Input
Amino acid sequence: MKTITRRKFSGTLARGIGASAVAAHLPLACAMKNKQTSDKLGIALVGLGSYSTYQLAPALQDTEHCFLAGIVTGTPAKERTWANKYGIPQKNIYNYKNFDSIKDNQDIDVVYVVLPNSMHAEFSIRAAQAGKHVICEKPMAMNVAECDTIIKACDENGVKLGMGYRLHSEPYTQEVKRFVREKTFGDILYVSADAAYRSTGNPNQWRLNKKLSGGGALVNMGVYAIQSAIYSTGQNPISVSAQEYSTRPAYFKDTDETITAQFEFPSGAVANIMTSHNIRANRLYATCENGWFELDPASTYIPLAGRTSRGELNFKQESQQKLQMDDFGKHILFDGPNLAPGEMGRRDMVIVEAVYKSIREDGKKQKLNFETDYGFGG
Amino acid sequence: MKTITRRKFSGTLARGIGASAVAAHLPLACAMKNKQTSDKLGIALVGLGSYSTYQLAPALQDTEHCFLAGIVTGTPAKERTWANKYGIPQKNIYNYKNFDSIKDNQDIDVVYVVLPNSMHAEFSIRAAQAGKHVICEKPMAMNVAECDTIIKACDENGVKLGMGYRLHSEPYTQEVKRFVREKTFGDILYVSADAAYRSTGNPNQWRLNKKLSGGGALVNMGVYAIQSAIYSTGQNPISVSAQEYSTRPAYFKDTDETITAQFEFPSGAVANIMTSHNIRANRLYATCENGWFELDPASTYIPLAGRTSRGELNFKQESQQKLQMDDFGKHILFDGPNLAPGEMGRRDMVIVEAVYKSIREDGKKQKLNFETDYGFGG
Output
């Protein structure tokens, strides 16, 4: 870890020095594909499901400011596989029980929580208490109260907290944010955003189990649609109305299948979103005073695409996760912006709760009142 | 008018013969650009505003089964202009007071009501009572009760009634209807439809005056979005929820500015629509079990465009109004289908009333119960 970090965050001072020292003397570290160097942060992935396996770990082979230093898994069989594949030393492998001892591991600077939603708060807090910076996957937690406990733990332990909102580091999304910031097409008047996929697999998967997920389509894909509505208007919503639909109750017996929601923004802009575990759609459309822009797909892992009333968008395609983790690394190492701070994750959970409340109240509009813009300009 | 008509509709027997006889002996008729012949229906436009001026009259120069035979206007200055431009004989020119004497005019087979909404019922009924077939512009009337009086008058007088829903004759829209009918992409799961334009002109125009229009964006562009939702699912909705937004109350002081609405269909499909007089958007997107299709623009007079998950759509561009009026002509002359019967216009007004009721009840879902599909297969 670079010395600049030591000056900025006293809490990481000891580890900063230690990590460099350890790297220089441990042969095992040299087996790591994306090698630990004095200016890279060591990341430990907590939860080795498909997102860690197929997105995050591969991306960490290409990151410039961080690398895959450790893993935390509840499945012993995965320990060897991952250790062999990525050259992870045994001392950097944890399970859920001995996880707290990670506080003594100088190789690990950041803990990335990629667990089922019900475990986000617990492991984010334990990571913070171990003095590690935290990246938390979306949705931030099961409810707003849990989000508050995560933010408090990170504050109290002097560690940084970022959401796994990879799109803020993605060039098409950043271009959308630029359109909004620079009023390229004038004021945004209306946003239509759909984020949905059709689930037909194992009905017992954790995403369809409310005790593990906290909700269905809304807390999963819906967060993308909420995010789309917000970064496409550059504002926090001041109200939300919502509706729920069910067509396959035998499959979606525990969680929401399809939800539509409408947002009002301070400028007068309106957003109309749909999220679903039964429908395939992944789109963002915004119409403005002097033109329009759209992304389709707008939030998939595969390359995004987009066009505007002035023509096609065409950006270099890179791993979104690589860009995201490097941006978080730059936040810690070089005091770069935190593109998706914990407060943003909490805000989205406030919105999620308001959506569910509107549905319980037969579509009644819910007022929202946020005090900060969480760095929309970033 | 062809003799086939005489056999089908006894009410038009005398006129059918008369029209042919008159045409053969009146020199003025020969000045008409799209000439009256024995197998073409004579249409009289009632209301010579911009839609008649720039869309319907030009289209009637190219129609195969009907022609511009007469005009009905409340503005005397327009009589000479139109008579000269289109070679309309003086005896085929009426004002709102002497309109009922059109019953004795053998040149006129169809009356096309293109007046402000508040005058639709009155002139549709007077046309029916004069024994003329009726095309009524959208929205059909000010409310469902008025729609009923129009339908009753046409029934009692043995005349045909069609809505001015030109898109049912338009090839991109017909392709969408084919996708639905043939399940080209499997079942339709979700439709997003926006029909809106940004009004910044004369705030005293009749469309913004509730006494003349009956409503704002919803009864104007919203009818397109409602239609889109229905023909993209091939079903009548079983419920609707709706929300209203206002950002320019000084301009839209009398009528709705922006409305979003959500529909449920018997199959489980969901539609999410937006209509506005403050926003520019004209789109139809449907996502299905095995693909998607979209039109953008979806309901403008300018050529439509579209694409699907299998590629671009590309149809010959013709005047939508020409196609529409010729289809209505074929309905009368050759017993072709009535692609947009009065009952369809009435259904849409039932939906409009339910949307306004949902808004008054803070978004509460309104049940809908329609008994027929109004020829969706057509």
